[in-house]
Amino acid sequence: MAQSLELLLIQFLMPDNDARRQAEEQIRRLARDPQVVPALVHHLRTAKTPNVRQLAAVLLRKKITSHWPKLPPHAKASLKQALIDSITLDNSHLVRRASANVVSIIAKYAVPAGEWQELLPFLFQCSQSPQEEHREVALILFSSLTETIGTTFQSHLNDLQPILLKCLQDETSSRVRIAALKAVGSFIEYVNEGGDIVKMFRDFVPSILNVSRQCLANGDDDVASIAFEIFDELIESPAPLLGDSVRSIVQFSLEVCSNQDMEINIRQQAIQIISWLVKFKASFLKKNKLIVPILQVMCPLLTETANEDEDSDLAADRSAAEVIDTMAINLPRHVFGPVLEFASVNFRHVNPKYREAAVTSLGVVSEGCSEHFKDKLEECLKVVLEALKDQEQMVRGAASFALGQFAEHLQPEILSHYESVLPCILNALEDPSDEVKEKSYYALAAFCEDMGEDILPYLEPLICRLVISLQSSPRNLQETCMSAIGSVAAAAEQAFIPYAEKVLEMMKGFMVLTKDEDLCARARATEVVGIVAMAVGRTRMEAILPPFIEAAISGFGLDYSELREYTHGFFSNVAEILDDSFSQYLPHVVPLAFSSCNLDDGSAVDIDDADGVDNGFSGVSSDDDDDDEPRVRNISVRTGVLDEKAAATQAIGFFALHTKSAYAPYLEESLKILIKHSGYFHEDVRLQAIISLKHILTALRAIPAHPVSISLY
C-alpha cells in the first residue's frame, strides 16, 4: 500500500483537476483500511517534499479516530514515535503543525488509557528547548491538547506557569510569544476556583501587556490581537481572574482605542474589551474609579469619521457609542454627569464633529440614564433643539436621532415639552437632507404615540405634512413616514376620523406592491391600516376592511418575514375591533399564524476545522465517513423569524380572546404551540406565549364543556 499511496499523494497535489479527483477517490477508498496508518506514517517521515508529508499528517488526523482501536501495540508505538520525530526533526513549520494536530487527537484516547505517559514530559522538555521550533510546537500542543485532555493539565498548571511566563517574554521569537499567548488563553476555561491557580493567571497579565505593547510598537498587531482575545476570556471567566489588573487592562485598552494611527480592527478589539468590562465587571470599574477615564476617551471617539474604505460596523464612533450606551444601562448614576458635561462643553464647538458628538452622546445615554434626565431634561432639550437648527447636516441628523431617543425613553416627562418639541420636528420634516428627514419621522413617531389629546392642536398640520411627504418621498422615507402616521393615529384616536379615508386609500396602494424592494413599505402600510382601524373603531371600519384583509392574506405568498410579522399584528388589531365578527376569517388567518409559529428559526452553527483546507487539502478533508470532532464556534439565529414568531404567537391569543366559542376547533393545536413557546429561548416569544395562554383560558371559560387533551411534556 505504501508505494501506491505515495503516488496518489503526489498525484493529489498536481494542478490537474481531473488527476486530483481521481487521486482523491482512490485515497478515500484506501483510507478505510487500518493499514493506511503505517503507510501514512512512512510517508510522514520519508517523503521528500513537505507538501506530501503535510498531506500524510492531515490524512492521519482524519482517520486516526476510527483506526486507533484496531492498531496493534507495536503500530501504536511506531506512530507515536514518528509523530514525536516529526515534531522535533522536520524542517517544515506546516508539517510540524499538522503532526501536532494528530498528536492532539491520539492523546484524547491514549493519555487517559495510560498508553502515552511520556507525552507530557516530552512537551515540557520541548517547551524549554533552545530551538525556537521546539518551543513553538510544544506550546501549540499545550493549546490543542486542552481541547482533548484539558483536565489532565490541571495538576500540572503550577509547573507550566513559569514556562509560559518565560515564553511570553521570549525576546528571540515572535512565534513563540504568539504560541505562549494562545496557550495561556486555552487554559483559562479550566480555572473555576480560587487559590493559587487564580493568582497564577493574574500574574500573566503584566507579561501579556508588556508583550502586547512591544509588538504594537513594532507594528505586530497580530500578537496584541491575541492578547485582547485572552483578556476577553479573563473577563468572561466565572473565576475572579482579573484582580487588580483591571486598571492596567483598561489603561492599555484606552491607549489602543484612542490611537488613530493604529488599524481599526485592533482598536475595535480594544473598545470591545471596555464594553465587556462594563457588562461583566461594572463593580470593578466603580471600585477602581475608571468610569470617568473611560468616558473621557469614549466621548471624543464619537467625533471620528470612518474612512470610505473602512467597514462602517467597525467605525470607532459607532463602537464608542455602543460602549457609552452599555455604560449608561449598567452604571447610570456614574455616567450621566460626565456625558452631560461633555455635551454642554461641546454643543457649540467650532468643529461640527464635536457638536454632532455632543448631541449624539445625550441621545445614546437617554435609555440607561432616563431617571437622571428628569431634573435636567429642559437643559438637555435646549442643546438638542438648538442642534436641530445647526447649519451642518451631520449635526441636525444627530439632533433628530437624539430627539427620537428622548421621545422613546424619556416618557412621560418629555410629553410636557410638546409645545417646544413638535414645532421643531415639523420644521425638521422640511430639511433638505433625506437623512435628517428620516430620523425626524422616527422622532415624530416616538413622540406622538403617547401624546393623547395633546396632539389635537397639531393634528391638521401634522397630517398634511405627512401626507404630502408620503406622496413625494423616496421609498425609505415613505416607510418612516408611515410609521409616524401610525403614531399620530394612535394618539388622536377618534379625532383621526376626518383623515382616515385619505390615509387608508393611500395604504391600499402600498398593500398591493409585490417587488422585493417594496415589501418593507407594504409591511408598514399593513401595520398602519391596523392602527387606523383601532383608532377610528368598528362602526366606521367594518364595512371597508374586507379588501384590506384580502390584501394582507395575499401577502403571505411573497415570502417576506417582516411582512408576515406586521400582518399578524394587523390581524390582531382587526380581531380586537371586530370581536366575534372576526370569526369568519379564522379559517384563513389561523393556519397562517400556526405556520409562522412552526417556522424554523434558522439556528445554525459555525464549525471550526483546524486542518489545512487553505493549503489545498479541502477535497481529502471531506471524507464521507469523516471521523473528525469539529468545534462549534458560535450559533446564529435569524432574528426576523423571532419577531414573526412573537407576532404570530400574540395573534393566536387575540383570535381566541375575541372569537371565543368560534375558536374551539383551533384550541388544541394552539395550546400545543403556546406551551412550547412558553419555554422558548427568546424572551419576546415567551412573553407573548404566556399572555396568549391567559387569553386562551378566558376563551375556554366561554366554551361550555369543551374537552381539550394535551400533554404538558
Q: Quick check: average pLDDT?
A: 85
Give unreliable regions as ranges. Answer: 603-619, 621-637
| Oligomer state of the chains in this structure | single chain
Treating each run of at least 4 consecutive H or I residues as one helix, how many helices? 35
In percent, how helical is the residue content? 55-70%
Number of strands: 2
Shape: globular
Share in β-strands? under 5%
C-alpha-based Rg, rounded? 32 Å
Biggest β-sheet strands, sense, barrel = 2 strands, antiparallel
Structural class assignment = mainly alpha
How is the largest sheet built, in terms of strand order?
1-2
Distance between the termini: 56 Å
Structure, explained:
This protein is mostly helical. Among the domains are: 1-116; 560-602 and 634-702. It is built from 35 helices and 2 strands. The protein has helices at residues 2-12, 17-30, 36-46, 50-67, 73-89, 93-110, 119-127, 132-149, 157-168, 174-187, 196-217, 221-236, 246-257, 264-280, 282-287, 291-301, 316-330, 332-346, 352-365, 370-373, 377-387, 393-409, 418-428, 434-448, 459-472, 475-492, 497-510, 519-536, 538-541, 546-554, 561-578, 586-597, 639-659, 667-677, 683-701; strands spanning 604-608, 631-636. The protein has a two-stranded antiparallel ribbon with strand order 1-2. Mean pLDDT is 85; it is low at 603-619 and 621-637.
In short:
The chain has 713 residues and is mostly helical. The chain has helices spanning 2-12, 17-30, 36-46, 50-67, 73-89, 93-110, 119-127, 132-149, 157-168, 174-187, 196-217, 221-236, 246-257, 264-280, 282-287, 291-301, 316-330, 332-346, 352-365, 370-373, 377-387, 393-409, 418-428, 434-448, 459-472, 475-492, 497-510, 519-536, 538-541, 546-554, 561-578, 586-597, 639-659, 667-677, 683-701, and strands at residues 604-608, 631-636. It is found in: Cytoplasm; Nucleus.
